[in-house]
User: Fold this.
Amino acid sequence: MELKYDIVVIGGGPAGMAAAIAAKKAGSDSILILERDTRIGGILLQCIHNGFGLHYFGEELTGPEYAARFSDEVVQLGIEYKTDTMVLEVEKESAAGQGHRVTAINTVDGLMHIKAKAVILATGCRERTRGALIIPGTRPAGIFTAGAAQRFVNIDGYMPGRKVVILGSGDIGLIMARRLTLEGAEVKLVCEVMPFSSGLRRNIVQCVENFNIPLKFSHTIVKIHGKERVEGVTVAAVDSNRKPIAGTEEFIECDTLLLSVGLIPENEIASGCKIAIDSATSGPVVNEHMQSSVPGIFACGNTVHVHDLVDFVTAESLRAGENAAKYVQGKITASGEKIILRPGNRVRYTVPQYIESREQDGNVSIMFRVTDVYKDVYVEVSSGNEVLKSVRKKVVRPGEMQVIELAPNQIESAGGDITVSIQLPQEVAE
Assistant:
C-alpha cells in the first residue's frame, strides 16, 4: 500500500498531537499521525492525577483531560491518524527523490509505504527496567516499573501489591507512592541512590511528605529476596561514589518492588535514520527549529530529552510542527552556519544543541538540566569572554527543567559557540 503525505508524525501522544496541530495551522493540510496504541493520547491517558496544564492552559487538569484538549482539536481540524500502527523504518528516498519513506504496519491496512516530505519523531520515552540495574537476588514476581504499575492501577484496575518499596524518586515513582497509599497499600520506603530527588519538588511534598512515607536519599537496594514472589529487599546507604557502605544494610519486608530509576528517549527510529544522537540526552541532536541532523526529520518531546512537565513538551512540539510545515513550504533552508550550544559549569546538557542561523525572527528557547542542587546562583549564557545573558535563580534542581531565552540581537552578537553554565555568586564578575 503506497501513501503520500506532506508530513508524517510518528507518535500520537501529547508531543505528536501538538506538532500535528501546529503544522496544520501553519498551512500544511496533508498530515498523518501514526500511533502504536489503540487510541491517541499517549502516556497521559493513564496519568489520572491533576497538575497538568498550569503553564499552557493556566488551569489544573488531569492527564486524560489535558490529552483530550489536543485529541479533540486533532479531530476538529480533520487531521488524519492511524492507531494500532507500528512504524518499522524511516529511510531517505532515492537521490533523485524528495523527502523520506516511512514503512509501517497494522491489521487494517497491512504493510504501508508512506512518502513524506517531512517526518516528525514524537515517539516518547521508555522506563529503565531491572535489566538495566545490577541488583543481586532471584527473579520473583512482584517487580514492576512505576509506569507499568500505574497502568495496572489506573487503566486495568489491578493492585500490584500491598506492601511496597520504591527504588528511585522519579516523578512516576513519587506519584505512585501516593496512588498506592490511597488505594490501601502500605508504601514502606522510597529510596534514592542520589543525595537529591530526580523528581519535581512539588511531587516530593504532595506525594511523599504529606503522606508520611519514608524517603531515604543516598540509599539503594543491594538484594532482592524471594523465590516465587518478592518477600523483601535489603537496603543500604551509599558513599559519594554510590557504592554500598558495609554495615548499613537493613532488611525491609515487602511483596512488591517498583522501579522509578529513570527514563530513556525512544531513539531506535532516529538511530536507524542515521540521526546524530546526543550522549547526554540519548535523544536526537536538534537545532532551534527542532530539526535533526538529517534534513526534513524533526523531533520533539521526550524523544529528544526527558521533560518534567508536559507543558514544556507542548511548547517544544508546537515549534517542531510549525517548522516542519515551513520546511515543506520551502521557508527553512540550511544556512551553512552552525553556532554550537555547549553545556558549561554545572550543566548536563542543552536543547537545542546548536543554532543554525544568526538571523532569528524571535527568541530562541534553550532548555537545560543542572548536575546538582544549587542555591542562589546565576544562569549565565556566554560566547567567548562575552556574557550574552545572566539571570539570577534562588534554586535549581536536576529534576526540574530550566529554560532561558536568547533574543535575536544576543544571538547575532555571539562571537562563536555559546555556553550555558551555572555560576556561583563569587564566580560572577562585578
Remarks:
- The first helix runs from residue 14 to 25.
- The chain has a mean pLDDT of 93.
